[in-house]
């Protein structure tokens, strides 16, 4: 029994703290290998962004027993869809696609209009709920550990991202193995290891979501300024990584 397994008996928050401390001293391969070796079902959700491509590359290269899933919202860029297949072929991995339910899309369109997300924050959150949050719940069914590509440098809202935290809303451990990586380190890894990336990154899109909701950023803007650019809230998120009940372990 590992130290982390022993602490798990004290509760999920203590377990997250122990895991956070352990991951801090490891490199990316070590972090992923540690989590994969805990003997639980681990799911990595990828948006095919440059950070997530680094994680997929390490999972595939080291043949780690980590399930990989993506939220195929129905509004993704063509470049993103092509990258899914390219990544699978290069690393001999399977990326499971989770799509929104047609009934949910129809209900949304009836209430707000297909592109009603431009009209209000409420409508935009409702769209994210249908196209991302509900599919995410299906992607994480049966998982006890969720891996993400969150980094502290992505936005002010993510500046305190820990390596591990307890997500009380979803009742699982959330692991962010790239929390302390900056964008230059990400780009260097991609270059050194021939990792396939979305061509939109070279066109000014550091953060890529659904096509109607993503624009290229302007010089000097934060990485996520191109997401839901018409809204004024600087901490805007889709809800995947922000939950009122989430218990966060302070970053170290």
Automatic annotation (TrEMBL):
Cofactor remark from the record: Binds 1 [4Fe-4S] cluster per subunit.
Positions of the Phosphoadenosine phosphosulphate reductase domain: 42-216
E.C. numbers: 1.8.4.10
InterPro entries named in the record: APS_reductase, PAPS/APS_Rdtase, PAPS_reduct_dom, Rossmann-like_a/b/a_fold
Residues annotated as binding [4Fe-4S] cluster: 127-128, 210, 213
CDD domains for this protein: PAPS_reductase
Keywords: Cytoplasm, Iron, Iron-sulfur, Metal-binding, Oxidoreductase
GO cellular component terms, semicolon-separated: cytoplasm
Active site: 238 (nucleophile)
Cofactor(s) required, per the database record: [4Fe-4S] cluster
Compartment(s) of residence: Cytoplasm
Top class in the EC scheme: oxidoreductase
Pathway membership: Sulfur metabolism; hydrogen sulfide biosynthesis; sulfite from sulfate
One term of GO molecular function: adenylyl-sulfate reductase (thioredoxin) activity
Catalyzed reaction equations: [thioredoxin]-disulfide + sulfite + AMP + 2 H(+) = adenosine 5'-phosphosulfate + [thioredoxin]-dithiol
Pfam families membership: PAPS_reduct (PF01507)
A GO biological process held by the record: hydrogen sulfide biosynthetic process
Superkingdom to which the source organism belongs: Bacteria
Record-stated family: Belongs to the PAPS reductase family. CysH subfamily.
NCBIfam families: APS_reductase (TIGR02055), PRK02090.1 (NF002537)
UniProt cross-references to PANTHER family, sorted A to Z: 5'-ADENYLYLSULFATE REDUCTASE 1, CHLOROPLASTIC, 5'-ADENYLYLSULFATE REDUCTASE 3, CHLOROPLASTIC
Its biological purpose: Catalyzes the formation of sulfite from adenosine 5'-phosphosulfate (APS) using thioredoxin as an electron donor.
Protein name: Adenosine 5'-phosphosulfate reductase
Species the sequence originates in: Rhizobium sophoriradicis
Name of the encoding gene: cysH
């Amino acid at each position: 029994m590992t130290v982390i397994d022993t602490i798990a008996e004290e509760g999920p928050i203590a377990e997250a703290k122990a895991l956070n401390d352990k991951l801090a001293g490891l490199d990316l391969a070590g972090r992923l290998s540690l989590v994969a070796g805990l003997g639980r079902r681990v799911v990595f959700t990828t948006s095919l962004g440059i950070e997530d491509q680094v994680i997929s590359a390490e999972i595939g290269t080291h043949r780690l027993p980590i399930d990989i899933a993506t939220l195929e919202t129905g509004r993704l860029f063509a470049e993103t869809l092509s990258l899914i297949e390219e990544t699978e072929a290069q690393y001999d991995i399977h990326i499971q696609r989770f799509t929104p339910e047609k009934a949910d899309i129809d209900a949304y369109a009836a209430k707000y209009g297909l592109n009603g997300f431009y009209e209000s924050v409420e409508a935009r959150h409702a769209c994210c709920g249908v196209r991302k949050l509900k599919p995410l719940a299906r992607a994480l069914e049966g998982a006890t550990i969720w891996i993400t590509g969150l980094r502290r440098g992505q936005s002010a809202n993510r500046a305190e991202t820990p390596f591990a935290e307890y997500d009380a809303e979803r009742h699982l451990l959330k692991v962010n193995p790239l929390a302390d990586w900056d964008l230059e380190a990400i780009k260097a890894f991609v270059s050194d290891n021939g990792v396939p990336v979305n061509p939109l990154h070279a066109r000014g899109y550091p953060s890529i979501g659904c096509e109607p909701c993503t624009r290229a950023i302007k010089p000097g803007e934060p990485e996520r300024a191109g997401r839901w650019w018409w809204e004024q809230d600087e901490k805007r998120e889709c809800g995947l990584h922000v939950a009122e009940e989430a218990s966060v372990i302070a970053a170290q």
